[in-house]
Design goal:
By secondary structure, this protein is α+β, with helices and mostly antiparallel strands. It has helices at residues 9-43, 112-115, 138-143, 148-164, 169-173, 177-194, 216-285, 287-302, 320-323, and strands spanning 44-47, 51-57, 60-65, 68-71, 78-84, 89-93, 97-100, 106-109, 116-118, 124-135, 199-210.
Length: 333
């Protein structure tokens, strides 16, 4: 290509204006297409199966949308905030965990002041618990409170401290844990409802209750002494329950036997006296018959006890002739 064939600056400018004019013809269509794409993207939104959408128009709450695909007014007129209403959230207290820090990101820290509590008998306990909750009213959650998680944590700590302070250290450690869980859940739910937070408490559960590390050895010694005391008391009651009821039973048996013996003797004496009186009356009426009857009754009692019986003639003056078995004519019956 020769230098003389090169376009001049005027020709280059003219060619540029011509091409720019052609582009200006399609530029409005390009801008319109861009806004249409942006509008379509902003108008269609999706809500997950475990969520509901909170619709705001110029910042004002309008309605809720169910799971699925929906349309809204684009270009920032309407805003959608998805809220998980089926998920169970959990907050842990007194447990070393990752939490938001004051700066950017998260930090793993231990919060001893959160878990150290004073009981009703002025003992200190290391209390660790969890709170599980769900969102029951997304609109209240977004617009009634500024920091839902912080509110839950503050209320839970206040409620738990109050109920732990109502019980003794032994009750919190052993028998009253479920009762504290139940009352704390009711109290916390009532406060959240008064604040219109839209949060439903599922459960509050004490996970671990221990004395602080610095006093744990002394606390364990006290518990061991109490356990030894309970053991000795139980052993004493066991020995008592073995000996005392047996002694009471033996005494009761002796008393009943004595009462029975006395009653038997009294009844026998009464019977003998009554029989004697009856016999005496009969004897006075007919002495000979009574004497004979008594004689026969006496023989009935004596004869069965005799082994050898000899019957002799009452007219014999001596029994010897009948016992002389060597002589002829002797008779033995």
């Amino acid at each position: 290509m020769e230098w003389k064939d090169a376009p001049s600056p005027e020709e280059i400018i003219s060619e540029g204006k011509r091409r720019l004019g052609d582009f200006r013809g399609i530029l409005p269509w390009l801008v319109l297409g861009f806004f249409v794409l942006v509008g379509l993207k902003g108008a269609i939104y999706s809500i997950g199966p475990d969520e509901v959408g909170v619709i705001q128009r110029f910042g004002k709450y309008i309605r809720l949308s169910s799971p699925g695909l929906h349309a809204k007014i684009p270009f920032g007129v309407e805003k959608v905030t998805p809220v998980k209403v089926e998920k169970v959230f959990k907050e842990e207290f007194g447990i070393k965990a990752v939490r938001p820090s004051t700066g950017s990101g998260y930090s793993s820290m231990d919060y001893p002041d959160e878990r150290l509590m004073l009981t009703g008998d002025l003992n200190i306990l290391d209390v660790r618990w969890i709170v599980q909750f769900k969102i029951k009213d997304p609109a209240q959650l977004l617009f009634a409170i500024r920091d839902p998680v912080g509110t839950i944590r503050d209320i839970s700590e206040v409620v738990m401290r109050r109920f732990v302070g109502d019980y003794s250290v032994d009750e919190v450690l052993t028998t009253k844990r479920e009762e504290i869980d139940h009352f704390a859940q009711q109290e916390m739910q009532g406060i959240l409802d008064d604040y219109n937070t839209g949060i439903q408490i599922i459960t509050i559960k004490l996970l671990d209750v221990n004395p602080p590390e610095k006093v744990k050895p002394a606390f364990n010694e006290v518990n061991e002494a109490k356990q030894e005391k309970e053991k000795m008391i139980n052993q004493a009651w066991e020995a008592y329950n073995k000996v005392i009821p047996k002694a009471r039973g033996t005494a009761e048996k002796t008393i009943r036997e004595a009462e029975g013996y006395a009653l038997d003797k009294i009844n026998r004496a009464k019977g003998e006296s009554e029989r004697f009186l009856i016999t005496l009356a009969e004897y006075k009426n007919s002495p000979e018959i009574t004497e004979k009857r008594l004689y026969l009754e006496t023989l009935q009692d004596i004869l069965p006890k005799a082994k050898d019986k000899y019957i002799i003639d009452p007219r014999q003056s001596s029994i010897l002739p009948f016992l002389n078995i060597g002589e002829k004519g002797a008779a033995k019956q």
